[in-house]
Design goal:
By secondary structure, the protein is mainly alpha-helical. It has 2 helices and no strands.
Length: 94
């Protein structure tokens, strides 16, 4: 299919390159402006269900996050450094 489109584009190599860019831009614009807005209501991205015991941020008395997911609260020590981005890997203890 792509070779057929490439053969049908006019005006030699410059015309084929410009035509390819225009066809790609038109395809992206069609998807972005028509297809994706049409399909968005059909997709489950906004189907969020929060229950009472799900651990919503801010529902703890101290304003921290305490939920059933096992995340540490503000008073617990984090298992990683928050001061550096490239901490050396720790060796497993045996």
């Amino acid at each position: 299919m792509y070779s057929w489109i490439w053969r049908k584009l006019p005006w030699g190599l410059p015309g084929k390159l410009i035509g390819s860019v225009l066809l790609a831009a038109a395809t992206v614009a069609l998807l972005w402006l028509v297809v994706f807005p049409w399909a968005e209501p059909l997709l489950p991205f906004d189907d969020v269900q929060v229950t009472q015991d799900s651990g919503v941020p801010g529902d703890a008395p101290d304003g921290g996050f305490t939920g059933p997911s096992g995340l540490p609260g503000e008073d617990e020590e984090l298992p990683y450094s928050t001061e550096t981005n490239n901490a050396p890997p720790s060796t497993p203890s045996r």
